[in-house]
Structure prediction request, 319 residues.
Amino acid sequence: MIKELWRRELRLDLLRADYHTPQKFTQTEWQDPRQPPALWYVVYRWLSAGLFVAVAVCSVLDAGREGQDLGVRYVKWPIYLTNWGLACCCLQAALGAGLATANFVQERRQRRGGRLPRTLYHPLAPRCTERDAAPSGQGGLGSPGAVLQAPSLPLLHRLYWVLNTISITVAIGITCTYWVAVYDPSEHVLDALNILVHAANSALMLVDVLMSAHPLRLLHAFWPLLFVFVYLSFSLVYFLAGGTDRMDRTCVYPVLDWERPTRTTVVCVLGLSFVVAVHTAVWALQLARRRVARSLREAKAAANKGEKKDPGVQLDAMA
Prediction:
């Protein structure tokens, strides 16, 4: 079973940001997958987006703190990895809320009009290929017995998937790294803003992992890896250009002190390895989420219809 799981997850075609069921990106795991996005889930998505934006605004303004020029706060806000991650969280939350709302409104309108929602295509249909697109009589969709093909994932869904995957891994990584390797009681104030920026972000993203229905691919670890690598490269360029942090120190973070290149290089390698470890842990968590949800649906189907499975369970099995 474990070997089969690894074989399935390590297929190279899964490197692409593509998926056969777009509505999974606008639904919660805890609903019937044949239905439009649950209203409570749409509300949750907007609440999540609002919370992230509120935290970001408080972070930019350094709310509740005094003693530093506002211009310095604004100009140097983008030099911190924490704020890169927070910005990414805001973008994915807003995009996720927009997609869920659009799908909710569209499918409700179509159902009221007596039409089948466009997202409810046959879940067993393979991806469309050049052969599938051939004219009638040449083995394509026009040939007898052809099956309606699943459309490729829309661009906005792909963007949301990438941002969401990055945000989950990076947020948890930032929280762990900050409290273990960066936080210094003699320098950092343990106030509400500090907790919101360095703990609430990962808490909100963990809730998102448990609530959402879309998958998280193991091979997609390269997205947060690339994100962190770009930041590390930025920190080096920023150092070489003579940049300083808010306290006019030459290193943005003590653990990223490029005046000690050997140690910092080791830290970077360890940090990138930690990103992979965090991503793997989150991947395992979403597997557990999907398994629990599927078991609940199977139990409900067995109770209502004997041993006959609910079609919603069959749809889950395609994930």
User: Anything to note?
Assistant: The mean pLDDT is 83. Residues 257 and 273 are 19 Å apart (CA to CA). The longest helix spans residues 261-305. The chain is about 60% helix and 0% strand.
